[in-house]
Amino acid sequence: MLKRVLFIALSYLLLSACTEERQVVDSSGSEADASIENNLIITEPVIVYSSRQEYLIKPLFERFTEETGIEVQYQTGEEGPLIARLQAEGEATFADILYTVDAGNLWSAANRGLLASVDSAVLQQNIPEHLREPQGQWFGLSVRARTIVYAKDRVDPGELSTYAALTDSKWRGRLCLRTSKEVYNISLVATMIERLGEEATQSIVEGWVENLAAPVFSSDILVIEAIAAGQCDVGLVNSYYLGRKQVDDPNYPVALFWANQETSGVHVNISGAGVTRYAKNPQGAQLLLEWLSTEEPQMMFSEMNLEIPANLSVPSAEQVAAWGGFIQDSINVEAAGRLQAQAVMLMDRADYR
């Protein structure tokens, strides 16, 4: 207990000095409110290990504290080191919640036995089945769609359709991609393996490589900028990266196209969280997750980072809504982690670097 109090005190000092991504569900919040009211009074803070940037989580945690009186303390860092730290700490960990981006990272933590199963009617109601781990070890809290972007002046959106169609010879020398080493692309390919099988997926990835206009880029922003500059005409990115460009310049020369709307739906991934296996404050941790799945914080997610609410009954931010509604791929996002190794090997065989 003394160690935990000391950690909380040190965390507070560090954070004070620190600045730094067609079902209808009832998200009225009544169940979440009842859950908070019916639990024992929680006097200890909830401690979060998070790979999300401070500006994206601090307003949410402060709002939660205002509503419930439960303090939230957090430590931020990269996904890999945070998961390794959680594993190294074992039963002595201070963390009550692991909060990170990409289902592959959450799957990895769960696969190492670092997360606990949570049985919550609130979370099951608010978070669609394909956006949460089947045993309740983690839950998506916002959606990140990876889809097609294109040059407005050089591409007729009527030419676009699916991820696989980008292998067509008409896109030879016109496609830009981010590196295969990025987890977002690994997860996209892993999900394709789940749906299409390895042979078909490898054929698609090889077709992408054949159509590249330039060596792969290190970020989605660089892909978008290359399209705007005329270096290529189409690419694959997470939608919120384009949204940021459009906020700064409503006439930005790159537009978004929702892929696979006549087939499997757009590939989606998540930012999400789970209660740690050795949480010292599991009740507080569960209440925080439940609260994050309700209307106000879901809208805050969308407004702050132009992501899409995981709770499908909550409207997206205006900039996101302007892209129009779309069908999500219904495959459970846990496939992004379960098939991650196969995806990496497949991309290597396809010479996608």
Automatic annotation (TrEMBL):
Residues reported in the UniProt entry to bind Fe cation: Y240, Y241
Pfam name, any one: SBP_bac_1
SUPFAM superfamilies on file: Periplasmic binding protein-like II
Superkingdom of this protein's organism: Bacteria
Gene3D superfamilies listed in its UniProt record: Periplasmic binding protein-like II
Family: Belongs to the bacterial solute-binding protein 1 family.
Name of this protein: Fe(3+) ABC transporter substrate-binding protein
Organism expressing this protein natively: SAR86 cluster bacterium
Taxonomic lineage: Bacteria, Pseudomonadati, Pseudomonadota, Gammaproteobacteria, SAR86 cluster
